[in-house]
Specification:
The chain is an alpha+beta fold. The protein contains 11 helices and 17 strands. Helix 1 packs antiparallel against helix 4 (139-156), helix 4 crosses helix 11 and helix 6 packs antiparallel against helix 7.
């Protein structure tokens, strides 16, 4: 099957995960794609397959040579972000993008404009796949899945191409920070792996945020507003006050590169009770601790002001920066950079301003840097895929497994 058609098939399947769910996977609909991938891998002639009760698809292609090839794994996630609608995706292909603004939805006046999204300038001359402005696209990470599946198809169709053991895994719930909680690294059984879950084709990423999540609960007192003087405590207003006590510029709208942030992802409440959820990110562990302390200090200040128990803060560690572990295996970075140069790309490594299954897997003992897909503007209606870079990544992954 053509790689572009694969991708279009995958994005037609709604796999949005749910951060409030306690089940694994967080949504049953992720199995819909898992079953499709299992059947496709089987049709390719891969017999060593498994689909777990927790919705992880594993596949293994055995080595076809006694020569000294590494055992390499490739991983991509099946879920799409809960941040934006992922159902009824209507992708559209734009041929030979000319650099002008793209009207995604004329009726709703939704425009993908290079004035606001400078990444479009990188893709002038490329074919693009865009949304209709009412959903995300799902390139994160169905583009990664399609790239890995294309590599598997090429390997299985030509036994004259030498390679070592290749392991494949498609995981659920990466977007809600739970993509590897049931991952079996011993069963996967490789020397190292790559997640295919990034952006630009010329980047290999091996450092990411240290990540926490914070749940802030505010307890107020609801009194009829006609007799509320001196009695009412509006939890919503206290919640606003809490947020105002955090550093103004520790906000993703003001940060880039190695700068950390606190991001308010949701707020729900009424006069009596309000709950705010944050993600806390920093590449530097010590700076992350300072951000955690900001949350605790804000809680303590408001509890002194309004009474003990008014504000509760629960901070949970999500994942850590993989750099300190990957630096011990720079050979797996150097290999990719060498192949990129052979493909006339100048390789780059920049910090991931987000999460990746690779970070958790690295801490589980499986070195796992991240490769791109050609996707842009993830988690929203302006998401798109550069077909040119998508195809480049397909070739890069194929060359990784066929080079020593």
């Amino acid at each position: 099957m053509d790689i572009i058609q694969r991708f279009l098939n995958y994005v037609s399947i709604d796999t949005q995960s749910d951060e409030s769910s306690l089940t694994s996977p967080s949504t049953d609909k992720q199995f819909n794609l898992a079953h499709v991938l299992y059947d496709e891998l089987k049709c390719l002639g891969i017999s060593d397959l498994k689909l777990t009760d927790n919705c992880i698809v594993y596949a293994r292609i055995p080595a076809n040579t006694d020569e000294d090839y590494d055992r390499i794994g490739f991983i991509a996630h099946m879920d799409t972000s809960p941040d934006f609608k992922g159902k009824d995706v209507k992708p559209r292909i734009i041929k030979n993008y000319d650099g002008s603004a793209i009207t995604l939805n004329e009726e709703l006046q939704i425009v993908l404009d290079p004035h606001n999204f400078e990444c479009l300038k990188r893709d002038i001359g490329s074919d693009l796949i865009v949304t209709d402005g009412t959903t995300l696209l799902g390139a994160d990470d169905k583009a990664g899945i399609a790239i890995i599946m294309d590599m598997a198809q090429r390997i299985m169709s030509d036994n004259t191409v030498k390679h070592g053991d290749i392991a494949i895994a498609f995981t659920p719930d990466e977007e809600v920070g739970r993509g590897t909680e049931n991952f079996d690294t011993e069963y996967f059984n490789v020397d190292y792996a790559y997640t295919v879950d990034g952006g630009n084709a010329d980047e290999i990423e091996y450092e990411n945020f240290n990540a926490d999540s914070a749940c802030v609960k505010v307890h107020g007192l609801s009194i009829h507003p006609g007799s509320a003087k001196g009695k009412m405590l509006n939890s919503q207003l206290v919640a606003f006050e809490f947020n105002s006590l955090l550093r103004t510029f520790d906000n993703p709208a003001y940060t880039e590169g190695y700068e950390g942030f606190n991001h308010l992802t949701s707020i729900n409440g009424d006069c009596e009770n309000t709950v705010m959820n944050y993600i806390i990110r920093n590449h530097d562990k010590n700076l992350l601790l300072k951000q955690e302390n900001d949350f605790k200090n804000a809680m303590e200040f408001l509890n002194r002001k309004y009474g003990d128990g008014t504000v509760e803060v629960e901070i949970v560690h999500t994942y850590a920066n993989m750099r300190e572990f990957i630096e011990k295996r720079m050979d797996i970075i150097d290999k990719v950079k060498r192949i990129m140069r052979e493909m006339n790309m100048e390789p780059k490594s920049s910090p991931i301003r987000g999460g990746t299954d690779g970070a958790s897997l690295t801490y589980m003992g499986l070195p796992c840097p991240n490769l791109g897909t050609g996707g842009r503007n993830y988690h929203g209606k302006y998401e798109y895929l550069s077909i040119n870079e998508f195809l480049i990544m397909s070739e890069l992954v194929y060359k990784i497994v066929t080079n020593k």
